[in-house]
Each structure stands twice: as structure tokens, then as C-alpha cells.
Amino acid sequence: MTFTTLSSRELSQNLTRVKKATQNGPAVLDISIARGLADMKAGRVRPASEVFDRLEAKYTAMLNQRI
Hints:
The chain is mainly α. It has four helices and no strands. The mean pLDDT is 80.
């Protein structure tokens, strides 16, 4: 998988390069979405609320250790 990084200046100055860089973009997005849907159907995902609660507890504990 190839990623192309462009600065705002490059973006405004070289539209041909931007068009070439976006040709593969949607296919990569489609593959990522398909993988996510397959994981969801197989039960390999967690509800966002569980993930947020776990991360909040983790970073709260880290903060409390620094105080």
C-alpha cells in the first residue's frame, strides 16, 4: 500500500500529481471498509463505549501517577 503526502503548496501547484495519487485511494478505502465489516460480523470488535471507558481509565491513572 502506497501513501502519498503532499503539502498544501504542492497540492495547489501540481494537480496532475494529485490526480495520480488519488487513483489508488478509493480501492484502499474499500479494502479497509471490507476488513472492518468482516471483523464486525466475526465478533472481533468492541463497542465504542467500552473502548472509551478503558482509555479514559488508563489515561486518568497515568495522570494521577504524575501528580
